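Aim 2 progress update. The chain analyzed this quarter is reproduced below.
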Amino acid sequence: MNTYNPARMQAKTNIAKNKAGQNRRTGTNPVNKTGAGPKRKQSAGSRQNTGAQGKRTDSNPRQVTVSIWIIAAILFLLAALIIWPHINDKSSPQTGAAVPSGSYCYGIDISRYQHDISWDSLMVLTDWKGRTIYSKTGAKDIRPISFVFIKATEGSSMKDKRFHKHWKNASQSGARRGAYHFFRSSKNPVHQAENFIKTVGQLSPGDLPPVLDIETMHSGCTAEMLNDRALVWLKAIESHYGRKPIVYSSASFISDILCDEIKNNYPVWVAHYNSTAPRCSNWNIWQFTDKAVVYGIDGYVDMNVCSRSFLKSL
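Predicted C-alpha cells:
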C-alpha cells in the first residue's frame, strides 16, 4: 500500500534535475542516444555540383592537349596556303615589261644577283599585250635568248663571285656570251683592265667583245678626266684581245658626258627604259628594261635588243 511521503518525492525531483543538468553540459541528446541528429535532405544544387565534378574527373587532359595541337596545325597550314602565293609572286613575278616593236634579237645581262638560272630553258615569252610573261600557256610569241652579258669585274680588284659559274654555264646554253667590267673613275684604269683580263682569261670563238660599263663619276672627277681614263681601259682591252670593246651607259650619260672619240669609235650599248627607241641615234644595243620576266630565271632581269645584222657582225 503506498502512502504519500513528501521527503521521498523531493528526493526524486532533485535526482531528475541533476540528470538534466549533466545532459546539457555534455551535449548528449536524451532522446537519440546514438548522437546522430536528424538527417537533412540534400539540395538539388548540391546534387548538380557533385555531378559536374564527376564529369570533369572523367575527361582526359592528354586528349584535350592533342586536339588543341591538331587544330593549331590545321590553322597554320591554311594560313601558309593563303600567304605563300603572295610571297612567291614577289620573288618570282609572272608578268614583266613589254618588249619594243620591231624585229630584234633578244639578250639579257646578269650578275651575282641572278643565282638560279635554267640555262637550257631560257626564252622570252610574251602575251597578247606584248608583255614578258613566265607562263607558257599564256604565251602568244616565244623568242630565244640570243646573247647574254655577264658581269666579271668592278674597279681594280673586285670580281663578281658568280662570274665563273655563269660564264661556264652560258657556253652550254646556245646563247652567245660576253663579259663586262663596271668602271670606277677613281681607280687606275690600267689596273682595272688587268683585273678584267685576269678574271675573264682568253675568249673563245663566238664570244662577244668585252664591255665597259660607265655609269658614274666620283666626286671631283670631270668629264674630261673620265673620258681619258675610260679610253685607257678601252685601248688596253682592245690591244689584249684584238677586238673593239662595247661601251655601255645611259642615254643621258652618253649624250652629256661621253666624248666623241668614244661614241664614234666604239659600239654603243644604251640603257633607255622606255618602249620608244633611245634618243641617241648611234646605238647598237638597247637595254629597254630592268624588269623583264624571262622563262628560266627567277625574278626580274635586264633585257636588251639589237639587230640581227649587228649581232652577226660581232
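The chain has two domains: 62-91, 94-313. The CA atoms of residues 248 and 269 lie 5 Å apart. These observations will guide the mutagenesis experiments scheduled for the next reporting period.
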